[in-house]
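Lab manual, section 2.4: Encoding a predicted structure.

Procedure: take the sequence of the chain (476 residues), apply the prediction step described in section 2.3, and record the output as structure tokens. A sample record is shown.
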Amino acid sequence: MNAYRTWLSTIAAATMLTACPRANVTGTIQARPASAGSIQAISAEAGQPLAFSTTQQGKTLTLVASAGGLATHLTAGLGGKPYALAAAPEGPAPAMPYHTRFAARPGPARKRLLAEPARVLGAAETFWVNTGDASNDVLQTAVLERITDHAFFYKDKQAKAISDAQFDALVAEFETKIYPREAAVFGTPPHPGVDNEERVFIVVSPAVDNFGKEKGLMGYFWSRDALPNGKGGEHSNRKEVLFMSDKLFDYPALTSFGTMAHEYQHLLNFSAKSVRSNFTVAEETWLDEGLAMYAMEVAGYGLPAGDPLIAKDLNEFLRNPLAYSLTDWENNPHHFSYGQNYLFVRYLADRYGADAIKDLYASDRTGVGAVEDSLKKRNDTFAQFFADWAVTNVVTGLPVAVGTKYRYQGLDLAGDFGGFRLPGLQTTRVIDGNASMVLRPWGCAYLTYVAGAEQAWSLALSSTEPAKLVGAAVLN
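Recorded output:
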């Protein structure tokens, strides 16, 4: 199940090196002058040296180094003193809880003894609704309140009072913003759907938030509902359906309608990947969630519109990037990383346009493979793009990034969003003679070296498995 929660919290601070697949590589960053206020990109294939340095005194050097492997070891020496950074070794992929993925629970298909009645306003229909706990579904009765060109809108009989004006606003947001704007980037649902209907279903129910007990679950799409022939289990609704909490009008429109846009992308992604592949392929969580966060922006909500909840989640990554992995979603702080994954997809769209996003959908692969397929059309690789993105996070908005590829379009990582000010990416200042850090898979460390009496920076990089090393240095 894909669900977007509104609660977020806080962590600490760190810096920039990155981990990517398999490496027996050593490289040395050696003395070479660089101008102040500049970005110098450097790279080396496996087994080749990686070199960068400056002889200028009194300058601050921010190192951004990326190794194309999941297990990466970095040792760095400043003025002859070693700094050791070791990455955790690559292990088995984490087991995904049932409710977090596109998965079908085994069990008998629901028996339908009668043909579906024609749907008319005011008619009642039952839906299995998950309460936020994968093991707890409830059968709820809902009434058809609106029919539009693209959706049936239902309200649970147990839902709190929702005025006609509020329901009309919900319908208008979907029909005038979410559906057409996301269609232009992500496409449309299958026609017809798994139930032979042309429309999707949107059900407003208090059960989504476990009748107020979850305190934060705003909505979800679960692919079990869109699987055919009993593959979704006995609680499958056998419809393309989004469920929204009946508390959606208790929140600002950016949050409530933004959540609907977020969940609708999950439905579209499932349609593009799984339906096309005869339900043998499902997008990986980290990329699916990054796309869903970007979909909020596409529909007119999200961070650029001033959503403080997204800013608060992004704040955690910016303050402690070392704790995060781009791809290991479940093992990130709080078991998610909405802000970080949004930035990655946003940078892909900023750098290469909407067609790059469409190519993710068109790829028969998922996760890193899907991104590689999109980047290959643009003569780029995942490792190099990842390194460029990592650099962008620390320099975007600075004069040094003007006119370069290292920037987000119209997005300030130190800006104010709905009254919440982002701090910009926080680097780790390296000031003593001995330090160590652990890197996550496809994770980053941002290291700022403050110039002292040394005449040059000297860094040695090594990785435990074959990989391309990519780095950049920002001299201020």
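Check your result against the sample. The domain at 120-281 is CATH 3.40.30 (Glutaredoxin).
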